Amino acid sequence: MSYFDFFLLPLLPQHENEYKQQIKIFAEVMKEFGLLYYCEATADQVPHGEVTDFYRAVAAVGEETVVAGFGIWPDKETRDRAWSEGMNDLRMTSLDGHKRLFDGKRMVYGGFTPLFESKSLREET
Predict the structure, then answer these.
(1) Are 98 and 76 in contact (CB under 8 A)?
(2) Which of 103, 125, 106, 98 is nearest to 23 (CA)?
(3) What global pTM score does this model have?
(4) Of 9, 11, 2, 8, whose CA–CA distance to 76 is shortest?
(5) What is the pLDDT along the chain (125 residues), one digit of tens a residue?
(6) Domains of the chain by range and CATH?
């Protein structure tokens, strides 16, 4: 059964281009360890709620926007091995820019087991 990683993080607009470069490296490394699909997106039509919302989830302040992302793995075992081994890959350990691109303490993340799956993801272009 597939396994999913989901996360949210706050990001200042001026850090977006540098962050994109880190995303590309992360995806490249993790695909070598079995990642099937990866996507990160910035908030576009994300309303500010009265009780909860994406901005509050990451304690966004000022001009910070929200980045939401997810990865699809073939199974939990592959994902666990990738996070263990992939994060020790030299390409990943050399990426310390995240410490200044976003506040990791305000990142929300987790691994999820599917409740329902539809196998209709389009091919990557």
Answers:
(1) no
(2) 98
(3) 0.87
(4) 2
(5) 899 999 999 999 999 999 999 999 999 999 999 999 999 999 999 999 999 999 999 999 999 999 999 999 999 999 999 999 988 888 887 776 556 789 989 999 999 999 998 876 555 54
(6) 3-112 (3.30.70.100)
Place of tokens 């929300």: 108
Token pair belonging to 21: 């470069």
Residue located via tokens 């075992």: 77
Residue corresponding to tokens 């309303």: 47
Nearest CA-CA partner of 36 in 117, 108, 96, 94: 117
Q: Are 33 and 82 in contact (CB under 8 A)?
A: yes
